[in-house]
Specification:
alpha+beta; Serine Threonine Protein Phosphatase 5, Tetratricopeptide repeat; Immunoglobulin-like; 2 domains; five-stranded mixed β-sheet; three-stranded antiparallel β-sheet; about 45% helix
Length: about 375
């Protein structure tokens, strides 16, 4: 039976949920014009993406609240705990991000305080970037205090909101150019007890590795060793560099030594596939060392491009500690199908096995399209 396609994310903000939001806002602010809100919010809703629906809700609140920004902020602050944790929870911070920044200098601190409050019911990571873009030093100074807050949601906001390349948002060019701007925030969170926060710190650092790999490596190498929370962040933060075989990154996660292994029964099967079929990589890792080894095992597929040129992509396969003299069998299947970020073309595709950044074996499959 064919699996049904998942419902588009934008349907999490449908007409019914907008009506529920209007009712909630009217309950806490009797002068709120719910009819105007719905007229604006539902206009052309069917054609809007998820984030466009969030923005349209903010525009509708602005049109329907006669008390201006201050009144809307009071209304949203009272309503936020009751809106729920779904995508509709993005509306209060988005409103602040769009209208608080135009409400005068005195509104800056009030807006940032509101974002700190709202993030505990959803996330303010997108909205806070508006204030970083408008006044980076002032916003970062506030966010640095958030990095020591008792709430893990607020601590995460300090890292996630200041990520240079946050998905679904614009890039923060100044932080991309100078990662030291958020160094204090990252250092404060390097051993955080919340996995929610640690994931954000790792992603923040991984963003930075795209342009400043040595800065990140210098930073994490200087951190005190031995804390498992910090070690987790380092491993996740360096994932892109590890896939690239960066020697310092491999050493930082304990896999920098040349692998003392032999590769047995290496195979890429079948040798020829049609688009949509799966190709399987199988082999044995056989230790030639008497001592345990930390191994990071990846594979690299060299894709054929439309022009006939090739482009390689590395895929994570396995990280393990292999006891001395032992062997382990590994098998991985991957479907070769088109998707939004890659179109496949016919031809021979090389497959390489990479262990601790070193090429250890190779094979191929021919793709028929």
């Amino acid at each position: 039976m064919t699996k049904a396609a998942p419902a588009p994310l934008k349907l999490a903000m449908d007409t019914q949920r907008f009506r529920q939001l209007a009712k909630r806002l009217r309950a806490v602010a009797p002068d709120f014009d719910d009819k105007t809100f719905l007229s604006v919010a539902l206009d052309g809703l069917e054609d809007l993406t998820l984030m466009a629906r969030v923005r349209q809700a903010s525009v509708a609140i602005h049109a329907a609240c006669p008390a201006g920004f201050d009144g809307a902020l009071r209304m949203l602050t009272e309503a936020a705990p009751h809106i729920g944790a779904g995508f509709m929870s993005l509306v209060p911070p988005d409103y602040v991000g769009q209208y608080g920044r135009h409400a005068g200098r005195r509104a800056f601190d009030a807006s940032m305080n509101a974002l700190k409050f709202f993030t505990q019911f959803g996330t303010s990571e997108f909205a806070v970037r508006e204030f970083l873009r408008d006044d980076l030093p002032r916003a970062l100074a506030i966010m640095e205090t958030w990095s020591t807050d008792s709430s893990d949601a607020v601590r995460r906001l300090a890292s996630e909101g200041s990520r240079p390349r946050l998905p679904w948002s614009f890039r923060l060019g100044e932080i991309e150019a100078d990662p030291a701007l958020t160094a204090n925030i990252i250092d404060n969170l390097r051993a955080d007890d919340s996995l929610y926060v640690r994931k954000s710190v790792a992603n923040h650092l991984n963003d930075i590795t795209k342009q400043h790999p040595d800065w990140v490596l210098d930073r994490v190498e200087a951190w005190p060793a031995g804390n498992p929370r910090t070690a987790w962040i380092v491993k996740q933060a360096l994932r892109t560099l590890v896939k690239q075989g960066n020697p310092r990154a491999l050493a930082a996660i304990g896999a920098g030594a040349a692998p003392l292994v032999e590769i047995g029964r290496f195979a890429v099967t079948p040798a020829s596939i049609a688009l949509g079929d799966a190709v399987t990589l199988s082999f044995e890792l056989v230790s030639t060392s008497p001592a345990p080894q930390r191994l990071v095992v990846d594979y690299r597929i060299t894709y054929v491009k439309k022009s006939g040129a090739t482009s390689a992509k590395v895929f994570k396969l396995k990280a393990l500690s292999l006891p001395g003299g032992q062997r382990v069998s590994v098998r991985r299947s991957q479907h070769i199908r088109d998707f939004t970020t890659r179109t496949h073309y016919p031809g021979r595709h090389e497959v390489e096995l990479v262990v601790n950044g070193r090429r250890m074996a190779s094979g191929f499959f021919d793709l028929r399209c």
